[in-house]
Write a structure and sequence with these properties.
There is one protein chain. The chain is mainly beta. It has a domain of about 200 residues. It starts with a helix and ends in a 50-residue tail after the last strand. About 55% of the residues are buried.
């Protein structure tokens, strides 16, 4: 019976991928027709107001007022560009980019784009006080996509210090009040973030309110002051979140919800696979929230092959408002804990975190080795010492075990760590590849994902065959 179910699942997934690929091709052709030929943008003076055209490769541009990409216009940022944000000289207010048209940021591995606020000293020393950290306070607003933005594409881009207060003019681009480094809200559009870095934010580094997404092979460091996920996806978001390294998030790595979905739009459904999620959940101000992966409020999807290390909670399926459990599959996730308190939340409890996560015997460690006799879904339990400090994933150089004298919240950036796996790692070959990406966005060097990387045989974001995260 089990084999029959697996065959049905794989067949269903394969069929959905074929349909998705055909749809993606149709969408790609439609979006290409909307992109007007861009003209060069001068790098002299400072930028503000309505803007369209191309920031030329290798040049440095300065922003001193909100930039607006009008509906039907396109802003292209070529490889090697540095985009420096400053304060508006007239109002001393932080600036951002509001996008009603198309936004393409096309860095390369050899020449990434840098979007930053110059002159800020990073405080990444182990044990630094987050209350004094400029990375968590927001220096420039962010890149805010309005519901008319058909596509926002970010490739090989380093984004730093985003999330400052939104100006009144920028508020016309979003119904929200919280600032995000990236924001996208077109239920019929596409959002691609790949091979990039987001460092620091006051809340979510990026918020998605509907649309088709591909978020792959990125690094998220030290995001959210007292709340914020590496990705907060809502309102009918569908797509893939894979091969990302999330370290030191205030709350979770990815969180998927279906709140505020438009009538007739598809429900949120994201496939979360082969991510490495480390030391997350320890700046979350609300009790019972945060940690690693979160499905809630009518959202479904998948979660396989994720490496979850010293996070406040394991994969969390929320009971109230309940996730779309009928369309949710997960397993083959690898957990590591340095303490009994962390190990006792590998499967979050209902009374502590409103979670109804179901134990999966494909996980490591197997739940049957640490759950007490008679345990029921949602019960509180105390993990035995036998699961503490075991199943070391064997990073080439990682904070496992936790260095003496430090707290888990003290390690929130990559720094000198290397989260790739040693050749002897037990995570190599332990993954599940019997499913496919959703692949809802087109594959295109400019107007889509450069590559939608298939599930990997190794647990986590870094693969022994060279695929996966490239940082």
């Amino acid at each position: 019976m089990k084999n029959i179910l697996i065959i049905i699942l794989v067949t269903t997934l394969f069929g959905s991928v074929l349909v998705s690929c055909k749809k993606s091709t149709d969408y790609k052709d439609l979006w290409k027709a909307q992109v007007a030929p861009p003209s060069p943008i001068s790098d002299t003076g400072c930028l503000s107001g309505s803007l369209k055209g191309t920031m030329l490769a290798g040049k440095t541009y300065t922003v001193c007022g909100d930039i607006f990409v009008n509906q039907g216009d396109t802003l292209v940022i070529e490889e090697g560009v540095t985009l420096n944000f400053g304060l508006n000289p007239s109002t001393s207010a932080p600036c951002g980019i509001g996008v009603k048209g198309t936004f393409l940021c096309l860095g390369t591995k050899q020449r990434p784009v840098l979007i930053t606020y110059p002159g800020v000293t990073k405080t990444d020393q182990l044990g630094s006080d987050p209350n004094l950290d400029p990375a968590l306070k927001g220096k420039w607003t962010g890149i805010i996509g309005a519901p008319t933005c058909p596509m926002m594409i970010m490739k090989w881009t380093r984004i730093e210090f985003g999330g400052a207060a939104i100006s009144n003019a920028m508020k016309t681009f979003t119904s929200g009040t919280s600032p995000y480094s990236l924001y996208f809200a077109n239920p019929n559009g596409i959002f691609v973030l790949e091979d990039s870095w987001i460092y620091g934010s006051t809340d979510d580094p990026f918020r998605i309110n509907g649309g088709k997404i591909s978020v792959m092979r990125n690094i998220f460091e030290k995001c959210g002051f007292t709340g914020g996920e590496a990705m907060n996806a809502k309102a009918g978001t569908i797509g893939d979140f894979a091969y990302n390294l999330c370290i030191g998030m205030a709350t979770n790595g990815p969180k998927i919800s279906n709140i505020n979905v438009a009538v007739g739009a598809p429900s949120s459904n994201v496939r979360i696979y082969n991510n490495t999620i480390v030391n997350c959940g320890y700046r979350r101000s609300a009790a019972g929230r945060g940690g690693s992966i979160n499905f809630e409020e009518g959202a479904g999807g998948m979660a396989y092959n994720n490496l979850i290390v010293n996070c406040k909670f394991g994969l969390r399926v929320v009971n109230n408002p309940i996730a779309d459990t009928a369309n949710l599959r997960y397993g083959y996730n690898w957990y590591y804990a340095d303490s009994i308190s962390v190990a006792s939340q590998f499967i979050p409890s209902l009374s502590v975190s409103t979670a109804i996560s179901v134990p999966q015997e494909t996980d490591v460690p197997k739940p049957s080795t640490y759950l007490p006799v008679g345990w029921r879904t949602g019960d509180v339990y105390t993990a035995p010492s036998s699961v503490v400090g075991v199943n070391d994933p064997q990073f080439i150089n990682g904070p496992v075990p936790l260095p003496a004298g430090l707290k888990l919240r003290d390690i929130a950036v990559v720094g000198n760590f290397n989260f790739a796996l040693k050749a002897t790692s037990p995570c190599i070959g332990a993954g599940f590849i019997g499913f496919a990406p959703r692949a809802d966005v087109p594959v295109d060097i400019k107007y889509g994902a450069s590559e939608i990387t298939a599930p990997g045989k190794d647990i986590g974001a870094f693969q022994s065959n060279g695929k996966g995260n490239q940082h």
